[in-house]
Amino acid sequence: MRFTKSIPNMFTLGNLYCGFLSIGYAANGQYKNAAVLILIGMMLDSMDGRLARMLKADSVMGKELDSLADIVTFGVAPSFLVYYTYFFQFGLLGFAVTGLLPLFGAYRLARFNISSNKSSMNYFIGVPITAAGGILALLTLFGDRIPNIITSVIFTALCFLMVSRIRIPSFKEIPLPKYGTIVTIFIGCLLYVIYKGTYEQFPYLIYIATPLYIAYLSYRFVKRRNQRNME
Q1: Is-contact 162 127, C-beta < 8 A?
Q2: Which residues contact 213 (CB under 8 A, 6 or more apart)?
Q3: Among 37, 46, 87, 159, which has the highest number of CB atoms less than 10 A from its own CB?
Q4: Residue 77 belongs to what domain range?
Q5: What is the pLDDT of residues 138-169, one digit of tens each?
Q6: What pLDDT does 175 receive?
Q7: In the chain, at which residue ranges do the beta strands (DSSP E only) sit?
Q8: Residue 167: φ, ψ to 5°
Q9: How is residue 73 annotated by DSSP?
Q10: Among its keywords, does the record have Transmembrane (predicted)?
């Protein structure tokens, strides 16, 4: 019973570890690996909360652990990735600017955690840090086809959008896990990578995570459809 209740936290820690590995890959110049690990972190992040509710293992510690993992994987890791791929040419100024993402992301998470009514089922207040980190990872993954100025503008915009009061559609009513739209794009990217024959550049973990996540998506979709049919 205790093991069952610890399963969601294991997914959260897996998310955190993906962030750590991403920073290491980025420091060693393996930027595609670093970007992929952030996206794998998104997979794990989309699953831990739902597993906690499914297993009736919700806890305050789990929620706080999730926020700490998100800061690393979707705040610190994308910042290093963007710095090493583009902002490094601006020296100390570039390093300081990339630090805005984890700073603003941490503020956004803290504001969300203390919110009395949380977010509506239909929208988030400000861009979630998970979405911001995932978007930057995707931009880096295809950085050779995207001008650096576009990445810079999007990076700056995401920093301020996270702490804004703008309502962002949550798409929670769509029968996919949280942030499933972005991860679905990632699956398409994976198929493209395999088609181009460059799969050897990516960590083998991606070939374990992707089919597992596809199975999870299918399970959630079938379960949601069955529930609606019963109603």
Answers
A1: yes
A2: 43, 47, 183, 187
A3: 37
A4: 2-230
A5: 888 777 777 878 888 899 999 998 888 877 76
A6: 47
A7: 123-125, 167-169
A8: -85, 120
A9: I
A10: yes
